[in-house]
Amino acid sequence: AKSAGGNRFELADPEADARAITRHGLTTALPTALERGEFFIEYQPLVHLGDGSVRGAEALVRWLHPQHGVLGPDRFIPLAEHTGLIVPLGRWVLEQSVRQAREWRELQGGAEAVGPLRINVNLSPCQLTHPGLVQDTVDILERAGVEPDALCLEVTESALIGADDDLLKPLRRLAEMGVDIALDDFGTGYSNLANLRRLPVSILKLDRSFTQSMQQFPADPVDLKIVEGIVSLAHSLDLAVTVEGVETGAQADQLRILGCDTAQGWYYARPGPPERLHELALVDATG
Ligand code: C2E
Ligand code: CA
Ligand code: CA
Ligand code: CA
């Protein structure tokens, strides 16, 4: 090996090195993983805070890696974004999820008490700038026979900070069609609240950090004020508020009192297979 660059080839941190190797290995394995069907989706219920009914689910992708077992999205979504694979992968997730929503709706048979189950799908910033987004979404909904208002696309607040009109145009088109757009991880991005008016969003997903601060009793008074403020602002702009990361009944109570509309978290259910979601919705509808 060359020695000219000083300690460039020394393994000062074997763990970091192992991580880098894995990262490289995972990156090169990504395209074939999609072809081989190694990805799968878990669904986590979205629960109405007022009456506890299951209203829909968020789709969360996982990778069943032949050597490493099940990998969470934090391990491979950044790599997929970096290599561009996120576009076909994201399209696959959307298609699977919309088909799943269709299946739930068929199982419900129109006899549901609270309306047909809806599906939330995460959208990476790279998909947002991809020119095929609107048409792909239209095609997927049509192929599955699912109305646009059954779908909610979740975009992180940080992806839309300082967004210009070109970036917002596809989201506006989708919103006009009836697709809901949710602002994910809201409250972490320091976005200008007044800016919200400009964005074609109909749902704010309050970041988990706020839910966590509702764990102590009494909760931090400043956090309470902030959540109270966000909720009242959201409602005055006709936006619904979803909270994520609800792990305890105390958090759920607190967030309900603060006026949040929908909740998601381990307290209700961990992400799981599609049958589980349907069971939960059914149990809930029959009593
Ligand atoms: P996210 O969109 O904020 O999703 C919520 C994350 O919180 C999920 O992690 C979920 O499993 C986890 N979670 C749910 N309830 C609780 C709880 O009560 N407590 C705690 N501590 N965590 C909870 P997950 O599945 O590991 O996903 C991580 C992130 O990966 C997601 O964050 C999302 O940004 C991204 N992601 C997942 N699926 C997709 C996808 O299909 N496409 C894209 N672009 N990103 C995805
Ligand atoms: Ca999300
Ligand atoms: Ca989130
Ligand atoms: Ca998050």
TrEMBL record:
**Ranges for domain EAL:** 23-285
Organism domain of life: Bacteria
Q: What is this protein called?
A: Diguanylate cyclase (GGDEF)-like protein/PAS domain S-box-containing protein
Within the intact protein, the region shown is 428 to 714 of 714
